[in-house]
Amino acid sequence: MSIRVTGISKSFGSFRALDGVSLEVPQGTLLALLGPSGSGKTTLLRIIAGLESADAGQIEEDGTDITDLHARQREVGFVFQHYALFRHMSVFENVAFGLRVRNADRREIEEKVCALLRLVRLEGLGGRKPAQLSGGQRQRVALARALAIRPKILLLDEPFGALDAKVRVELRQWLRRLHDEIGMTSIFVTHDQEEAFELADEVVVMNHGRIEQRGTPDDVFEHPATPFVMDFLGNVNVFHGRVENGRAFWHGIPIEYPDYPHAQARDARVYLRPHELDIRRAGAADRASGRSLPASVLRITRSGAVSRIACRPAGSDSELHVDLPAEAARELALQPGEQVTITPRRVRVFLPDPEYVI
Amino acid sequence: MKPPSTLHTNAPAPLAAALVAAAVAIVGLLVVVPLAAVFCEAFAAGPAAWWRALAHDPDTRHAIWLTLAVAPVAVAINTVFGVAAAWLVARFRFPGRSLLISLFDVPFSVSPVVAGLALVLIFGRQGLLGPTLAWLHWKVIFSWPGLVLATTFVTLPLVVRELIPVMESLGPEEEMAAVSLGAGGWQVFWRVTLPNIRWALLHGIVLANARAMGEFGAVYVVSGHIAGATDTMPLRVEKLFQEYRTPASMAVASVLAGLALVTLVAKFVIERRLEAEFRDREAAFAENTAVDLRTPGASA
Question: What are phi and psi of B118, to 5 degrees?
Fold first, then answer.
């Protein structure tokens, strides 16, 4: 089942949760809605499920308008952030709920629920109460319950948000396999970019009730469309620079920027990802090239497989971070206070958007 | 949080003993002794006399029957109203919501006698709705509908007040989940909402019932205390007492007190269940927040 959302807006009092969002999700896609809290991603998910009504806009399923269809009739599987399991019912009854309210036949319920509990690897736990399950098990009950009604679409709100790191990674891979088996159109909400990139076919980055960018994980990561996306997708060095005549300047280093061919200089923001910078011990040859920046090392910290070197560009009091594989950092063996030259492999320039505030 | 035991161990022994003695003395003097006195008086002439006083006086029989009929009706009305009102207040935000919640408490702050008078002013023969009711041949004041109205009024806050915090802490998610699984409004209520609030609801019902059976002031005004017609148990106790028929008065009083003791036991049992459910909820909440600390922003 494909979904098309057109011009959805929603306000809560004076807070604009969604501002004219349009989105198309082809059949069988696993799509991630990625954004910080308050970006409207959960509201959008709830509107698609019919749990919240939009102030304006339209929702279609396979070309049929379902905007005014009650949540009860939408046949959407919804997995809530804290699972919202029926606490007074057993696991079996939780999964059976959707079938019971449809007055399904006893035998059919028995068969379906057992099959679903097998699918989510909870066979034998049907008699337990939700309070007696671990977080990961509850999550899978919530999923089985949503799948029991044979939904056309599966919607998951922060599906792994309340789980610890190890369980989260396991469940993520399991959910991906499950999606590939069932082939159902699925949308999940997350604030965790790693989760979105690992799991989703497509990622939609949201901010302030709008879609900032949509694309494959690679696409979004390699070609961030806006400063917000660049910023949100992980730590990044941000500097003030200047653009004129199709070039941007950062600490005197020219960067091609054909989007601004005008002669009048304008302030711009220069974004450098820490792992897209080369760092070397300072030598005489570097200064001549004009593409490198002299700097001094402030400190070196290591987290896991990556070493982070904090530097101060010469003649500046800002900090610049360079990420190196721990191995390379060991070979280089830099010490705080040493002079280095930094060469950006890749620089992104954005003209400040008056609406965008860091 | 400090474990409560530190309080116990830190209190100096003589002071603690004095406080306990004072509490026992006050509760004994004001609660246990008078209550025991009622039962002693009631059974002073033996169980046979007690039974005669209750069963052989048609007016007393009627009073007992009337109380056992009026209280459940009032409680039933308050149960339906309480569930609906608590759901409205807990699930929706609307202008005037806090005012509405404050209005639920009015029957607690207004003297029952004033409430009774207000009902007479509206439903009495000279009252606002008097002509209409006369035309319909409906008798409210000095009749059982008046008793039901007065009793409903004084017990109104008990069920709502009990349910609002419980419904708020439950949150709407389970109900939403039920709807998205295809449940209709009544299915959501019977299968999800009601099982979750059942102990709190029962608690409210027990409290409302106790108050309904014991109500005197408001009922006194609207009933016109007609023996054998509108006298309820508390009114009967007072009337017998005024007529110097103390043993009979005490017999009825002992029935009323006995009903109160049954209520007390029911309340105790229900409160233990409520506490257990509250602990479960707290534990679930603690678990969620503990995990959320590891994933900043997950609670958003």
Answer: -60, -40
A251-279 pLDDT, tens digit each: 878 888 887 778 888 888 888 888 888 88
Considering only CB atoms, A161 lies closest to which of B173, B191, B298, namely B298
CB A269 within 8 A of CB A349: yes
d(CA A98, CA A148): 7
Cα A26 from Cα A170, distance rounded (Å): 26
Any A CB within 8 A of B276 CB: no
Q: Is B300 on the interface with A (CB under 8 A)?
A: yes
How far A149 CA lies from chain B's nearest CA (Å)? Answer: 7
Do the domain assignments include residue B6?
no
CATH 2.40.50.100 location in chain A: 237-350
B36, part of any domain:
no
Q: Compute the distance between CA of residue B3 and CA of residue B16 in angstroms, rounded to an integer.
A: 18
How far lies B139's CA from each of B74, B123, B144, B215, B220, in Å? 17, 9, 8, 21, 16
Tell me whether B173 touches chain A (CB under 8 Å): yes
Interface check B17 vs A, CB under 8 A: no
Q: Closest Cα partner for B54 from B246, B251, B228?
A: B251
B294 to chain A: nearest residue by CA? A164
Minimum mean pLDDT range among A1-5, A97-101, A350-354, B91-95: A350-354
User: How is residue A257 annotated by DSSP?
Assistant: -
Candidates B296, B287, B173; CA nearest to A161 is: B296
Note the CATH architecture for domain A237-350. Beta Barrel (2.40)
The C-alpha of B286 sits at a distance from chain A's nearest C-alpha, in angstroms, of 12
Collapse the DSSP code of A108 into the 3-class scheme (helix H, G, I; strand E, B; otherwise coil) and give the result.
helix
Whether residue B294 is contained in a domain is answered as no
Contact B181 A71 (CB under 8 A): no
User: Element (H or E) spanning A18, and its range?
Assistant: strand A15-25
Closest of A158, A162, A214, A208 to residue A188, by C-alpha? A158
- At residue B49 the predicted structure's pLDDT band, cuts being 50, 70 and 90, is confident
Indicate the burial class of A104 (C-beta count within 10 angstroms; 0-12, 13-18, 19 or more): middle
Query: Best interface-test mutation with B: which of A48, A86, A134 has the largest number of B CBs within 10 A?
Result: A86
Structural domain includes residue B98:
yes
Residue ranges of the alpha helices (H) in A246-333?
Answer: 284-289, 326-332
Task: Give the chain A residue nearest B293 (alpha carbons).
Answer: A162
B222-271 per-position pLDDT tens digit: 888 787 788 888 888 888 888 888 888 888 889 888 988 888 898 888 88
CB contact under 8 A, A102 and B295: no
CATH class of A3-232: alpha beta
> CB distance from B186 to chain A under 8 Å?
no
Range of the domain at B247: 59-288
Q: Is B120 in a helix, a strand, or coil?
A: helix
Look up the CATH number of the domain holding residue B195: 1.10.3720.10
The count of structural domains within chain B is 1
Q: Which ipTM did the prediction report?
A: 0.76
* A211-215, A350-354, B135-139: range with lowest mean pLDDT: A350-354
Could you read off the pLDDT of A283-340 as tens digits, one per residue? Answer: 755 555 677 888 889 888 887 788 888 888 887 778 888 888 888 888 888 888 888 8
pTM for this one? Answer: 0.75
- Nearest to residue B260, comparing CAs of B209, B203, B190, B196? B209
